[in-house]
Specification:
Layout: H1 2-20, H2 49-59, H3 63-66, H4 83-95, H5 101-110, H6 112-118, H7 125-133, H8 136-152, E1 182-183, E2 190-191, E3 197-206, E4 209-216, H9 218-222, H10 227-230, E5 240-246, H11 248-256, H12 260-266, H13 269-284, H14 294-316
Length: about 325
């Protein structure tokens, strides 16, 4: 009985000590402001790829950009950002799947790689967005230069050019497609499913083809029983279609591609042309354009392709300059 009593007293005493004992932990204060020195050059390691982007862009002739800079010494106004910085920012951003000027501006405030590029200088997203679309001809020349630099490194030969593409299915209602309209013999006209005539009203030239336009009378379409299926949004105008006529050069090329020699070359397209497209979609994330209009969309493609070229140079050739 005494032993049990002593054990009970010990347990009670131990519990009282545990109740009294309170651990002391270091608190985390996220509301504080800290002032500390930052050595910008050491924000990124010597082998960080942002240094490679800066080096590659520095090898290119950027005089086309500098000629368009309005700020000059001896005159009033704010100095402009260096085009080498602006190009490097967009290339590095695209390589990380970032294609928004707002996002790049935000990253310049807290991401070490972007801070290293800018030297901790903030950039307004308007400045970044305008730069991306304001220099089409210079960007074309820049892409050409990148091919020259890759050729000098032995990475490409430029012996044969290949291209690849992809189709995106559109969502559309059931309708009468141009194939539903019949050619009216030698009268240079088409007959619609309702028996009305579409007559020529103009043409447009595109690379490799000419599109001839035909349109029905608006009065015929207004009372047509097939209007809702054929042209519900045409207003007072009648339904129109186009007839494409390929350039003789295009026709000759198509015939050439049917030869056995051309088919052998075409089989090489997968490794040459399909890989870059897959890489650009997967790594850069270019599955939807941010810009609008044919010219701006073309420039966005150029930025992506330029980024791809530089990334391959980094992967295969670049060696960091160790201090």
């Amino acid at each position: 009985m005494r032993r049990e009593g002593r054990a009970s007293e010990f347990n009670v005493g131990q519990l009282e000590k545990e109740r009294v004992r309170r651990v002391r932990l270091k608190s985390i204060n996220r509301q504080q402001m800290v002032l500390r020195p930052v050595e910008v050059e050491k924000l990124v390691s010597e082998d960080h790829e942002v240094r490679a982007v800066w080096e590659f862009v520095g090898r290119m002739d950027l005089s086309g950009y500098y000629e368009e800079v309005e700020a000059v010494e001896g005159e009033a106004g704010r100095p402009a950002f260096d085009p080498q910085l602006m190009v490097s920012l967009w290339i590095y951003a695209y390589s990380k799947g970032v294609s928004s000027g707002r996002e790049i501006s935000r990253l310049c405030e807290n991401d070490p790689a972007y801070q290293w590029l800018t030297g901790l200088e903030p950039l307004n997203y308007h400045t970044l967005s305008d730069f991306r679309v304001d220099h089409k001809q210079v960007l074309d020349e820049l892409f050409t230069q990148s091919l020259g630099l890759l050729s000098a490194e032995g990475l490409i030969t430029l012996v044969r050019a290949m291209h690849d593409g992809m189709e995106v299915t559109a969502f559309a209602r059931q309708a009468f497609w141009p194939e539903s309209f019949c050619d009216d013999g030698g009268n240079d006209a088409y007959i619609c499913p309702a028996g009305k005539v579409l007559r020529p009203y103009g043409q447009e030239e595109q690379p490799g083809r000419i599109n001839y336009r035909y349109r029905a009378r608006g009065a015929d379409c207004q009372v047509c029983a097939f209007r809702e299926r054929c042209c519900p949004q045409s207003g007072r105008r009648g339904r129109s279609i186009r007839r494409a006529v390929d350039d003789p050069v295009v026709i000759a090329h198509r015939e050439k591609m049917e030869t056995e020699e051309a088919k052998q070359v075409y089989r090489q397209r997968g490794e040459v042309a399909e890989f870059p497209n897959a890489w650009i979609k997967d790594k850069i994330g270019l599955r939807q354009f941010r810009l609008r209009g044919l010219i701006k969309v073309g420039m966005e493609v150029l930025w992506a392709c330029l980024t791809y070229n530089i990334k391959q140079w980094i992967r295969l050739c670049w060696r960091p300059q160790w201090a």
